[in-house]
């Protein structure tokens, strides 16, 4: 630190460039940049309203830094159908949480689609549509087919100007992708 | 046009750059006026690629120079006496300099840390603008057109005496170029449009013994980054790799779209130098600001944030430098030059914090002693540097500070021997160093361009290099020219990205993860340039570079340039007082590189490229033509970071028209 201050003093004295206030020592905590920090999946059993729960993936500081909090295992009943809803949130500033579903389901719906991919023990069917009547994928119906474990992969894709009825998961770019683990057992 | 012999020992007292290298024994190659004029209207790296020993590190259509296998933070670019300071860590961050201002470009190969301090391990690229004209108004106007893009540009440079003010002169320049999306042989390269401009102004007073000069120059660039290279996650990366090319549905655009980068670089200089009976001295103060902004592929989903349209990355790098040099006039053949240098640098981010805020303060003192005889010269140089680095970043909402400082010494020894008029033999050995950068120490986040999470290591220490080199020049009276050089560099604690064992999970899915690590690296190479007359009207030309790199585990250093050989022949019509010119074909061979472990794709195959170069000059007018990749060959450059996603541009025919005043 001592050499630093000596050199610093020397340089400040000799170099005009060193003049002026600097905020370099206090890096700001920026919130004007979007970062999807949270993906929430809520499931409600169509037959038994009390059989409902929400699973969360949270990475508050974005890619890098601290490791994300992974969703816990969702427990589903065999032979059941669930209303499922996914939410994308920007919680990087806890004082100003953005619910990105407002835009994904609103002005941005024609450029986005959520793909729901399952293994053989689950099936998912998108039920909502964008403004042009194409599948959107913020809401779906999830049915359990057999007992065991399975994974539901939620992929929010950006399809700017290229979204069609036959858009596939290999088109466009991934905005968010989270795998939710499930255990399906007899009630 | 490929001749790039050793530099003439020209000294420019006005601009004062004189010999920039550390040692007489170092290989220097000068970009000839022909090469420079042909390259105006393109990038600096494009121009330098014609010099043997210099390659380009490409990111799609963006390129930066590589000397002796090293680039970015291991290569120093000095423009008009000032070392350029930008965000050089990024492979896609081109050098912030416009070749249209340059009058002379010299590449000094091998470590030149004695004169230039940290970072000059690969060498130095010295760019000198035209000197101010005290006699009368002079200048040059250039218009350039290129078919691939297409691209158009123009530049104007003027200088002259200040009216009614004897001893005063002024100089000014302005340039602009723009390009639409470039094309590969079987489609377009979406979002590779470019806008670039620069201007400069200089005022100079040339006294009896003391000359003073003040100047300001501005360079700005706005360019698109190949949109198909912007990767959402590992699955997207695999999909893009499987496709290997941009979608055929992409349409050509003249404008720059997302993802894009904008940079503005300002340099102010104040130079005073004196030439007295007992000594020569110079003082150069410089101030630079480098403001770089980068936008992601698409706007935020949130409409309020989208309306702000803020760049995702935003860095301001401010640098002040001071360079004092004294050369006492010694008796006999001895020469002694000594100087001190100081630098004060601050980086500040706005937007995502990929590179933290930092302040670097450094001072160095150097001395070079030379003995010059008619047929031989020797010199020895020594330097000491003290470098401190302070870093501030946000960790869990709080500011975390870090600092370290390093003391480093560098030395060089060199000799030059002229056994006869035809022969020049040089050898040099020297050390270099550089401290770890803020990125290497504290990067932590997603690097979209390469679809990877990169993590710094705050325990990294400085790199230290040792370079030995030798070159032989042979000039025959019948105008056969040959220059051959060989070099070897050992770098201890060479900093590189090492793949982590497991990918890291993010909200976008899994990404490959890399951490900065250090290990010993070896680089060795050889360069050759030759020209020989063939009959009355033809000249044969050849240049070539070979490079071999190894880390301590026996693998190559990633993204090292490929070995290459360029052959050509020029038809030279009879020269007359009113006309001169030459034109001829070029054939370039680019070798296959060694495979790198953990690379996304195997290295591309070797390739042969066909081109043409020529010029015609009459009076003050001149036209130069250049055709690249005339066979429209689909090829990928081994040192292109985007080669996984798209091929290099296809056929490109260009012409520059210039008029001197």
- CATH topology-level fold name of chain A: Immunoglobulin-like
Strand content of chain B: over 45%
Mean pLDDT, all residues of chain B: 89
- What string, H for helix and E for strand, traces the elements of chain A in order? HEEEEEHEEEEE
Largest sheet: number of strands, sense, barrel closure of chain A: 6 strands, antiparallel
Q: Give the low-pLDDT segments of chain B.
A: 1-18
Radius of gyration of chain B, in Å, reads 24 Å
The structural domain count of chain A equals: 1
Structural class of chain B: mainly beta
| DSSP, total strands of chain A | 10
In total, how many domains does the architecture of chain B comprise?
1
Oligomer: heterodimer
Quickly give the CATH architecture of chain B.
Beta Barrel
Helix content of chain A: under 10%
The rounded distance between the terminal residues' Cα atoms of chain B is 24 Å
* CATH topology annotation of chain B: Maltoporin, Chain A
Q: Please identify the top-level CATH class of chain B.
A: Mainly Beta
The mean pLDDT of chain A is 87
Task: Assign the CATH superfamily of chain B.
Answer: TonB-dependent receptor, beta-barrel domain
Number of helices of chain A: 2
Instruction: Name the chain pair whose interface involves the most residues.
Output: A-B, 61 and 67 residues
Q: Mind sketching the topology for me?
A:
The complex is a heterodimer of chains A (187) and B (661).
Chain A: H1 2-14, E1 38-45, E2 52-58, E3 74-77, E4 81-90, E5 98-99, H2 101-104, E6 112-117, E7 122-126, E8 139-144, E9 148-158, E10 173-185
Chain B: E1 28-31, H1 33-39, H2 44-48, E2 54-59, E3 62-67, E4 75-79, E5 82-83, E6 102-109, H3 113-116, E7 123-129, E8 138-146, E9 151-161, E10 168-179, E11 183-184, E12 187-188, E13 194-206, E14 210-224, H4 234-243, E15 260-275, E16 279-295, H5 303-308, E17 313-328, E18 334-351, E19 357-372, E20 376-395, E21 398-420, E22 423-434, H6 438-442, E23 444-447, E24 452-455, E25 463-475, E26 481-499, E27 504-506, E28 509-511, E29 513-534, E30 538-551, E31 564-571, E32 580-590, E33 607-618, E34 621-628, E35 652-660
Parallel strand pairs in B: 4-7, 24-29
Antiparallel strand pairs in B: 1-6, 2-3, 4-5, 6-7, 8-9, 8-35, 9-10, 10-13, 11-12, 13-14, 14-15, 15-16, 16-17, 17-18, 18-19, 19-20, 20-21, 21-22, 22-25, 23-24, 25-26, 26-29, 27-28, 29-30, 30-31, 31-32, 32-33, 33-34, 34-35
């Amino acid at each position: 630190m001592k050499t630093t201050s000596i050199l610093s003093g020397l340089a400040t004295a000799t170099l005009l460039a060193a003049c002026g206030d600097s905020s370099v020592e206090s890096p700001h905590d920026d919130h004007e940049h979007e970062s999807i920090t949270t993906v929430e999946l809520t499931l409600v059993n169509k037959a038994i309203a009390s059989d409902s729960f929400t699973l969360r993936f949270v990475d508050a500081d974005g890619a890098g830094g601290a490791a994300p909090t992974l969703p816990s295992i969702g427990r589903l009943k065999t032979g059941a159908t669930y209303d499922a809803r996914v939410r994308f949130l920007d919680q990087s500033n806890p004082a100003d949480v953005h619910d990105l579903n407002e835009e994904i389901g609103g002005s941005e719906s024609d450029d986005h689609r959520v793909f729901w991919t399952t293994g053989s023990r689950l099936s998912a069917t998108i039920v909502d549509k964008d403004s042009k009547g194409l599948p959107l994928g913020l809401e779906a119906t999830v049915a359990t087919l057999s007992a065991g474990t399975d994974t539901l992969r939620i992929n929010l894709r950006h399809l700017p100007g290229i979204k069609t009825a036959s858009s596939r998961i290999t088109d466009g770019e991934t905005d968010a992708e989270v795998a939710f683990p499930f255990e399906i057992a007899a009630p | 046009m490929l001749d790039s012999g050793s530099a003439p020992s020209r000294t420019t007292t006005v601009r004062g750059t004189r010999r920039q290298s550390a040692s007489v024994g170092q290989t220097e190659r000068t970009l000839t006026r022909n090469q420079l004029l042909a390259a105006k209207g393109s990038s600096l790296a494009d121009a330098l690629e014609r010099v043997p020993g210099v390659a380009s590190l490409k990111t799609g259509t963006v390129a930066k120079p590589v000397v002796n296998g090293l680039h970015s933070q291991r290569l120093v670019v000095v423009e008009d006496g000032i070392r350029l300071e930008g965000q050089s860590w990024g492979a896609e961050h081109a050098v912030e300099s416009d070749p249209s201002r340059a009058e002379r470009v010299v590449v000094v190969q091998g470590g030149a840390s004695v004169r230039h301090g940290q970072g000059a391990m690969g060498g130095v690229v010295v760019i000198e603008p035209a000197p101010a004209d005290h006699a009368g108004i002079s200048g040059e106007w250039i218009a350039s057109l290129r078919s691939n893009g297409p691209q158009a540009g123009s530049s104007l440079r003027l200088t002259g005496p200040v009216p009614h003010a004897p001893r005063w002169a002024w100089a000014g320049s302005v340039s602009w170029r723009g390009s639409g999306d470039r094309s590969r042989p079987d489609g377009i390269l979406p979002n590779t449009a470019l806008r670039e401009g620069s201007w400069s102004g200089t005022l100079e007073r040339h006294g009896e013994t003391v000359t003073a000069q003040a100047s300001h120059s501005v360079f700005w660039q706005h360019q698109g980054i190949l949109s198909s290279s912007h990767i959402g996650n590992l699955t997207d990366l695999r999909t893009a790799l499987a496709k290997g090319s941009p979608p055929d549905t992409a349409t050509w655009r003249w404008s720059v779209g997302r993802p894009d980068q904008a940079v503005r670089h300002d340099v102010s200089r104040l130079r005073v130098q004196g030439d007295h009976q007992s000594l020569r001295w110079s003082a150069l103060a410089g101030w630079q600001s480098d403001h770089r902004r980068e936008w992601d592929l698409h706007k935020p989903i949130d409409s309020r944030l989208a309306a702000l349209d803020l760049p995702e990355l935003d860095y301001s790098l401010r640098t002040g430098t001071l360079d004092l040099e004294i050369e006492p006039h010694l008796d006999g053949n001895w020469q002694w030059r000594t100087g001190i240098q100081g630098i004060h640098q601050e980086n500040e981010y706005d937007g995502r914090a990929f590179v933290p805020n930092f302040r670097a303060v450094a001072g160095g003192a150097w001395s070079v002693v030379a003995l010059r005889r008619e047929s031989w010269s020797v010199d020895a140089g020594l330097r000491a540097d003290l470098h401190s680095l302070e870093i501030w970043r946000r960790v869990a909402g709080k500011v975390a500070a870090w600092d370290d400082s390093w003391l480093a010494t560098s030395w060089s020894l060199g000799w030059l021997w002229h056994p006869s008029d035809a022969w020049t033999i040089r050898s040099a050995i020297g050390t270099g160093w550089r401290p770890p950068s803020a990125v290497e120490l504290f990067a932590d986040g997603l690097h979209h361009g390469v679809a990877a999470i990169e993590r710094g290591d705050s325990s990294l220490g400085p790199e230290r290099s040792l370079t030995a080199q030798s070159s032989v020049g042979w000039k025959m009276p019948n105008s056969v020219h040959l220059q051959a050089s060989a070099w070897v560099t050992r770098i201890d604690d060479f900093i590189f990205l090492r793949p982590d064992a497991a990918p890291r999970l993010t909200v976008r899915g899994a990404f490959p993860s890399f951490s900065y690590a250090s290990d010993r690296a070896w680089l060795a190479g050889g360069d050759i340039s030759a020209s020989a007359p063939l009959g009355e009207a033809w000249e044969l030309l050849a240049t070539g570079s070979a490079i071999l790199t190894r880390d301590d585990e026996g693998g190559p250093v990633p993204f090292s340039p490929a070995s290459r050989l360029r052959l050509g022949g020029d038809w030279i019509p009879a020269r007359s007082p009113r006309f001169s010119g030459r034109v001829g074909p070029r054939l370039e061979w680019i070798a296959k590189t060694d495979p790198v472990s953990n690379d996304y794709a195997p290295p591309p195959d070797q390739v042969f490229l066909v081109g043409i170069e020529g010029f015609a000059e009459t009076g003050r007018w001149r036209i130069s033509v250049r055709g690249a990749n005339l066979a429209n060959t689909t090829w990928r450059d081994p040192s292109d970071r985007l080669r996984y996603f798209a091929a290099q541009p296809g056929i490109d025919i260009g012409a520059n028209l210039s008029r001197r005043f």
